[in-house]
Structures are given as C-alpha cells and as structure tokens.
Amino acid sequence: MTMVKDIDARGMRHCETTALGVLLRHEGLDLSEPMLFGLGSGLSFIYWDSKAVGFPFLGGRVKPFELTRNLAAALGLELLVGETTSPRKAWQNVAAPIDAGRPVGLQLDSYHLDYFRTKVHFGGHVVAMYGYDEQNAYLVDTAPQGGAVSTGLSGLARARAERGPMTAKHRSFIITAPSGLSSPLTSPRDRIIPAIKTCADAFLNPPIANLGHRGIEKAAQHVPKWLRRSDNQGEDLPRAADLMERAGTGGALFRNLYRDFLAECAQLIDSSHLRTGHRLYAEAATLWTQVAALIAAAGETGDATNLIQAGSLLHELSRVEREAMRALSKL
Questions:
Q1: Total of domains in the chain
Q2: DSSP assignment string, 71-96
Q3: Which positions fall inside the DUF4872 domain (predicted)?
Q4: CB under 8 Å, gap of 24 or more: what pairs does 95-98 form?
Q5: Angle at which helices 188-204 and 212-222 cross, to 10°
Q6: Structural contact between residues 137 and 153, judged by C-beta atoms closer than 8 angstroms
C-alpha cells in the first residue's frame, strides 16, 4: 500500500473545491470552501438543453476545471496538468506523485466509482487521490459521498477513460504553492477583488443567451413548459431539483457558497458595493431554494402552477443577480 502522509481528508459540499482543499492543505494553505469557490470565480449560470442531456439542465458554476485554473492564477500557484489517451500513461501520471508523497486531483465520470449510490453519468466530477494498493484507490470526495473513500482500480480506470459531455482525457493535476504563501489573504484586495470582478464581468456580459443573467431569463421562459417537455415528469423534474439543491452545489445552485464567500470578504474589505452584493446574493440563495422546491412539486403532482410560480421567481432572480453583479463590478 502506498499512501501520502498527513492528508487532511475533509469532505466538503462541492467536489472540485473539496479536491482543491485537500491539495492546498497539503501545501500548507487552509482556506474555507466558500473562499476557494469565490477566488476561483466559480459562480455562473447555464441553461443547457440538448439531445445529449435528454432533459434540460440548470447549471450554476463555470465549466469543470475552470475553477481550478482560475484559483491557481488568483493565488499564483503552479498547476501541473496531465492529459493523455493512454491508460498506462494516465496511471503513471497519478502513481508517480503519490509515490513521491503528493496527493493528486482527478477529473472523471462518477458513474463508475464504487461508492456512488446514484448511478448517473457525470464527466465533470473531481476527486483527490492520496493512495493506492493492489486493488483499490483511496480518494477524498464530498462529505455527502463519504469524505475519505475507496474505489476499485478497475472502476477508477473506467471513470477516467469515459468519454461524453464534460469529460477530459484522463485528466490529473497537482498543485504547488510558492514559498511564503502561508497566508494568501494577507493582502485580500489584490486577490479577492480581481476574482469577484472577473466573475461579475462574465455574468453580466455572456457571449450567448444561455449563460449568465440572460440564461436565467431564458430559464424563466422555458421552465413553465417543462411538464410538456418531459416524458417522465415524476422522475425528470425531481431529479432536476435535486441537482440544483443537493448534488454537490452546496444548496441553492451554488448561491449559498457565493453568499458565504461574499460574507467572508466583507470581513476583510470595507466596501458598500461588497455589502450590497452579499445582501442580494443572500436573497438570491433563498429564491433558488424556492425554485427547486416548486420544480420538485410540479414533478410529484403534475400541477403546472408550480412551474409558473418557478418561472416568476426566475424572472426575479435574473434581476436580483444582475443588480448584485453590477454592484460587485464596481469594486
């Protein structure tokens, strides 16, 4: 058995921030999950409807691994990424750093992991790996998935090799913090404000109508029609609600995490724009939880009134989040 020593196997709410937390704590940096998410400019929105997904998907964050790249840039971290089509090389990319005493981040399809109880293909899942033996890999996943867990090596290989939406080619990564970065928030304005403004600019100026505040407005127009859009409303709508509220989002489609990030920032930076953004994202988080509950109720009862109400709340959310990001863009 090969294991990295002194791993803090702390499962958090979201997969990518959980993995980043493991890797950074091993480098001596211990940041809260909301701070990891916010410094990675992780908040976004997408309304995604295509044949590949079957039923429309509401996403609340940037695409997989973009958060990691953003965080590394924000903190001046060295990010070494490995991608390959060769399973043999892919294993070497993981085993070598673990043998040398370093944990590794992996992007894979959670469907093939032994400990996942819900078998749904999701190629954007991220875990930290800190050990292996002849049969199993030892990982850190989110707290709801068990935190410190293990999975068979054969299943891990299939998870890493899977192809489809949001997958990567056996992607693995390691992070190195420069010396002297034991407290990256000693000059918070230099790191926090650019991360917030990057997030706000992308949200306010989306390149297509499916993204940002425009995407929320599009969702407001389409969600009321979801009963007609589904062939299995009792399954599709509750699953969509569950993905928004419980499937690694931290609740309220990642808005809880961003609300808490802004609250933490407000303790470090005195700014009325920051306080306004925090107040509005606290309001948005409550509204998103209500939207998820209405979508679930529509699926369970078949009552379209719930979806009409959800659409009205989504119109309001587009306005609230647009106002929040406009305030934050003035930092």
A1: 2
A2: HHHHHT-EEEEE--S-HHHHHHHHHH
A3: 155-328
A4: 95/2, 95/132, 97/174, 98/2, 98/4, 98/129, 98/130, 98/131, 98/132
A5: 40
A6: yes
Structural domain containing residue 292: 188-329
* 317 domain residue, yes or no: yes
Residue of 173, 67, 181 lying closest to 129 (CA atoms): 173
Could you tell me if residue 138 is inside a domain?
A: yes
Mean pLDDT by 10 residues, the chain (331 residues): 94 96 94 96 94 86 96 94 97 98 97 90 95 98 96 97 92 90 67 95 96 97 94 94 92 98 95 98 98 97 97 98 98 95
Domain boundary among 112, 142, 176: 176
Answer yes or no: do 200 and 278 share one domain.
yes
Report residue 173 CA to chain centroid gap: 17
Burial class (CB in 10 A: 0-12, 13-18, 19+), 96: middle
Residue 303 belongs to what H/E stretch? none
